[in-house]
Amino acid sequence: MTGRVAMVMLVALLAGCSTGAVSPRPSATEPSVAPVASTAPTATAVPSVTDTPRPTATPAAVLREIDVRDAGWAMTLAGGALWVQVDPPTDAIVRIDVASGAVVPAIAGGHRARAGAEGLWAVGDGFLIRVDPATGREIGRAEVQGAFALHDGFVWVLDDDGIHRVDPATGKVTHTINRDPAVCEDTKDLAIGFDAAWIACKGGFVDRVDLAEGSVTEIATARGSHTLLITEDAVWVTNYEAGSTSRIDPATNAVRTIHGVGSGIGITEGGGLVWVATNSQIVGLRPDGDEAQRISVPGERFWYDLVWTEEGIWGSTAGAAVYLIDVP
After folding, report:
1. Which CATH code of 2.30.30.50, 3.40.190.10, 2.130.10.10, 3.90.1150.10 fits the domain covering 55-325?
2. Predicted structure pTM score
3. Which of 95, 220, 279, 313 has a CA-to-CA distance to 35 between 20 and 30 Å?
């Protein structure tokens, strides 16, 4: 299979895949519900598009390569292990012991895992569960399922009914913000920060949902908006169809879009930079969006997910291996 044919198939596959202060926890047993905003989403101006000087790429070594047997996708790090969603016939989130490289299927039917102060959580076919990072066993279950994020002591879940705030200790919904699912029909990711929920929409925009009022602001980015990252002063999204990355200023909703980075949808933060990818390079962006570093990786791969560590950057590639890349 040629590289061009492989990429066409991968884009087609992606097209079919979907996946801050908060108000006080209510004392009543029933969850509180915020009403749907009475007006249509507020649209922002067309984003600025910025090309910055590109630094010369530095060759980087592949420090480790671990076979996960089938195509590996979404990835997170918790409990000294990488948790990677792997396609059938494995059809599970596998646990990769970082020290030994041992690979064990851990969460059957899992789609994505995320880790934070709220614990290790995984979503799959009909479930959203809390997982013991040492064993992979279920230790809790939420009463709703969908795209989710961890923030400020809660699990936040997006489904067709709205955005739900879930108590990680009980799995119960404690607050719901109603939303119209038609506003963003092809949702790709959810993140929470700056008193808002941020929803990546493949059509080329990000919805900002105010957590207190439920009002929605539609922010134009670029085609194929997919993976979100919240940093100290910005919201970032990779746009795989446009091959770009957008930086949103949460104070103004102003957008800076950087060309030539983001065709691989992985994004991570570390070493003072935000890291995104092309097919053959991993690129470090400064907090303002300027390019600071490019590292060249042997061979061409689709970098689906990236995870920063002090040892290097782990990357999944929609192939049967994950890699640890040195950062010179």
Report:
1. 2.130.10.10
2. 0.86
3. 220
